[in-house]
Specification:
Blueprint lengths: L6 E5 L6 H11 L4 E2 L3 E2 L14 E2 L2 H9 L3 E7 L2 E6 H9 L4 E4 L2 H10 L4 E6 L3 H10 L5 H16 L6 E4 L3 H12 L1
Helix pairs in contact: 1-7
Length: 183
């Protein structure tokens, strides 16, 4: 590992496999710290406070924003999500690799507040494959899928804003490439 790891941000369009890649990498390398976001969303079955998210009320989220305690935050589907700043800085100061898995808007905010962060864009092998992955989930109605695809077009157009692009042709290969960037 480098003497001074820096913050690495993984972003890319919905359905590209960000969570799958991160889970695969962390299974083999649990020492890589993944930031836990705060959210105003209600917990889903099986989600635990402090593990999957820090579940907070709107008023508490407002205070986090007002006090500058979030490195970045965004609203998505009527809920707010944000990265607690102190936890990230503490881990970096301790010399640990830190990974954020966030959306394009969040990545842009991190870039402006921490220009030394490495932004990694996870791209699909092709547009057709991304469409297949999003529609193949079978978990969302057609109008939601269409919104996600519209957003994905915008996110793909922002690829040049990132320092590195990884193409998700193989979860194992991309997880290895991401780990190499972190170390």
């Amino acid at each position: 590992m480098n003497d001074r790891p820096r913050l690495t941000v993984l972003s890319g369009p919905s359905g590209v496999g960000k969570s799958t890649v991160v889970a695969h990498m962390r299974k083999a390398h649990p020492e890589v710290w993944l930031s836990v976001s705060a959210t105003t969303r209600r917990p889903r079955p099986g989600e635990r406070h402090g593990v999957h998210y820090f579940f907070v009320e709107d008023e508490e989220f407002d205070k986090l924003v007002a006090n500058g305690e979030l490195l970045e935050w965004a609203e998505f589907a009527g809920n707010r999500y944000g990265t607690p700043r102190r936890a990230v800085l503490d881990r970096l100061e301790a010399g640990e690799p830190v990974l954020l898995e966030i959306d394009l808007q969040g990545a842009r905010l991190v870039r402006s507040s921490m220009p030394e962060a490495r932004l990694v864009f996870l791209a699909p092998p092709s547009w057709e494959e991304l469409v297949r992955r999003l529609t193949g989930r079978g978990t969302e109605p057609p109008d939601v899928i269409e919104r996600r695809l519209t957003e994905a077009r915008k996110e793909l157009a922002a690829e040049s804003e990132f320092d590195v692009t990884l193409v998700n042709t193989s979860v194992e290969d991309v997880a290895g490439e991401l780990l190499a960037l972190l170390c």
